[in-house]
Amino acid sequence: MSSYDHLSGTYVKVSSPQPHVALVELGRSPVNAFDEEFWTELGHVFDRISEEPTVRAVVLASAIPKLFSAGIDLGSLSGSLVAEPMDPSRRALQLQGHITSFQNSISAMERCRYPVIVATHGVAYGLSVDIIAACDVRYAASNTIFSIKEVDVGLAADIGTLARLPKITGNQSLAAELAFTAREFSAAEALTVGLVSRVVDGGRDEVVKAALETAALIAQKPPIAVLGTKKILLHARDHTVAENLEYTAVWNSAMLQTQDIPDAFAAMKKKQKAKYGPMLPKL
């Protein structure tokens, strides 16, 4: 089994509890509040995972037993908004660059080559929802409480929730209500509206176990097919049916040449599990 310790950072730890599965755990005590160092590290870790040839599926969870994340570190937020006197236009450009860099870090789960399953528990506020929305599959422990908290601290959510949540839920009215009010909503409601696909009875251990089981199942599948499925699903979200069909035809004209297909057929014929090569060559 591969070890993924080398992919870890200060607050974001990566391990391999099962073959080809990376478990990414958030661990900035006491409440996983995100400052710039933390969110930048999260983006860098996922970018490194995307280049790791033996990974086939990723689980994202909190290492803190009582919660997923309280969201943004308010001290860090207030510090970033305090600036020496500057021309307003230049200050706006500076802030735009800061926000864009932040967005890029949180979008790392979406652009990761491998499917990312997020497992939430306890409190999942503010930036938590941005992170969750950027993942491919979303599970919640039954004790999870969500909230899009940004309006309560005086800003519009700007890291991905407002872009992704209406498309995830298919309900613009609901997305607006949750974002305007910052009200808490339960795992059960998150399941009903489509934010999560499974609610697992219990807390952290139970939901992480369920996510790892799904990741292990994905990791047995032909990796090029899984990669293509993620790419095509994301493209479909943002394009018309006709555009997506064209994209799929171009994508598969290359990817149907993979060795994974004859390997899969040979394994089925022998009623064995197929063994597939790494996604990328080792450099």
Automatic annotation (TrEMBL):
Single annotated GO MF: delta(3,5)-delta(2,4)-dienoyl-CoA isomerase activity
PANTHER family, A to Z: DELTA(3,5)-DELTA(2,4)-DIENOYL-COA ISOMERASE, MITOCHONDRIAL (PTHR43149:SF1), ENOYL-COA HYDRATASE (PTHR43149)
Keyword Signal: no
UniProt KW keywords: Fatty acid metabolism, Isomerase, Lipid metabolism
Pfam families: ECH_1 (PF00378)
Protein name in the entry: Uncharacterized protein
GO cellular component, one term: mitochondrion
Family from the record: Belongs to the enoyl-CoA hydratase/isomerase family.
InterPro entries given in the database record: ClpP/crotonase-like_dom_sf (IPR029045), Ech1-like (IPR045002), Enoyl-CoA_hydra/iso (IPR001753), Enoyl-CoA_hydra_C (IPR014748)
Record-level GO BP terms: fatty acid beta-oxidation
Presence of keyword Lipid metabolism: yes
Species this protein is from: Ganoderma sinense ZZ0214-1
Pathway it works in: Lipid metabolism; fatty acid beta-oxidation
